[in-house]
Amino acid sequence: MGRTRGPVEGGPHVMVVSDPGIVRDYDEPGYWAIGSGAYAALSTLAARKQSRLRFLPETIYNVCEAKCAAETAVGVGRDTYVTIHDGGRWTALQDNGLAELRQEWERVAHT
After folding, report:
1. Which terminus of the chain has fewer Cβ atoms in its 10 Å neighbourhood, N or C?
2. 56 near 86, Cβ under 8 Å?
3. What is the DSSP track for 2-21?
4. Shortest CA distance to 38 belongs to which of 8, 74, 13?
5. Mean pLDDT of 55-76
6. What is the 3-state secondary structure (H, E, C) of 80-94?
7. Which domains are assigned to the chain?
């Protein structure tokens, strides 16, 4: 998969809509998080230097790691569903793949 710099015309965008209809654009840095675990997730993504320049496998790991870190916040559960859209096809990361990612995160987090 190729890399792109910044948003592509007609391509994906990262935006958050909050009450009362306030729209914020997060195309730069290219990711965002919401909810009670947002600070933990955003800190993790920033520490990993996540950006649109990262390859897909690295991005998947970084996002799952951010989700695991967010679970330290009140109200964030362990249930995780990952769906990937790449080149016109959709792929769901199955439970065993998520379990492997979680094991790796726990190993790295505790070393």
Report:
1. C
2. yes
3. ---SSPPTTS---EEEETTT
4. 74
5. 92
6. CCEEEEECCEEEEEC
7. 15-109 (3.60.20.10)
